[in-house]
Amino acid sequence: MVENSNILLPPGGQRILVVMAHPDDAEFLCGGTIARLTAQGCEVSYLLATRGQRGSDDPAMTPERLAVIREAEQRRAAEVLGVRQVLFLDYVDGDVEPSLQMRREIARLVRLLKPDVVFTFDPWQRYQVHPDHRAVGLCTLDALAASRNLMYYPEQFAETGGPHRVRQIYFFASDQPNHWVDISAVIDRKVEALLCHASQMRGRDAQAIRELVLQRGRPLGSEHGFTCAEAFHHLVMN
Questions:
Q1: Which Pfam families match (predicted)?
Q2: What gap in Å lies between CA 30 and CA 26, rounded to an integer?
């Protein structure tokens, strides 16, 4: 099914959970879509596996300092986009694996937050070189399968109230997109959110970031009549 929409979600999709590996992943890959969702009244939460403590080439920087910097940057960017809350799992940047422990932790938060829709990495993206991206996408999908099942992690039920089923998943960074979102009207908000990630922007100003957003978004939107778009693979879980 190929989708092309100004309204991203199916009816009832009010609670959104975005699961990512590092600060700035969401802003780069789906920041415009998030801006549109919050403008429509959706409740968006972020869940990050790491604080991005290895995302620097500065020899004077330390992982400990960078983790504090990038967490603050992520919270500011989330505020710009209208995200309700930002949660971290405290894994180490670059060392994330699709483990049973991470699956359990994500399943717990899915049961607590009860999202209608989840956004995450497409774990089957070809030639994806960052292990954290592959691991987070795969582990999130596995956690969604577990979170709906009565026999998985029943020790969580006293806290979470029981299983929770998520039917709608949108994979970003996918080689096989089937859903495109027009972000032409919210480019400035995406740029503003990206500017919050100063440690990662390498001195780029707003104009340079805007050109980067358009460079990525124009090809995605051109075939669908959009000036600028973000693309996803939409999967319905039965």
A1: PIG-L
A2: 5
Can you give the residue range of the structural domain that contains 232? 3-236
Q: What is the 3-state secondary structure (H, E, C) of 132-185?
A: HHHHHHHHHHHHHHHHCCCCCCHHHHHHHCCCCCCCEEEEECCCCCCEEEECHH
3-class secondary-structure state, position 225: coil
Please write the tens of the pLDDT for every residue from 148-157: 999 999 999 9
Domain total in the chain: 1
Q: Which residues of the chain have pLDDT under 70?
A: 1-12
Nearest to 229 by CA among 220, 99, 108: 220
Query: In the prediction, which pLDDT does 193 show?
Result: 98
Sort strands 168-172 and 229-236 into parallel, antiparallel or unpaired.
Answer: antiparallel
Distances (CA, A) of 61 to 24, 34, 64, 132, 202: 18, 31, 9, 21, 14
- The CATH number for 112's domain is 3.40.50.10320
pTM exceeds 0.90 for this model: yes
pLDDT score recorded for residue 12: 60
* Cα 149 from Cα 182, distance rounded (Å): 35
| Residue entry with tokens 């989840």 | 118
* Crossing angle (nearest 10°) for helices 63-81 and 25-39: 20
Angstrom distances, CA of residue 226 to CA of 5, 6, 208, 223: 10, 10, 21, 8
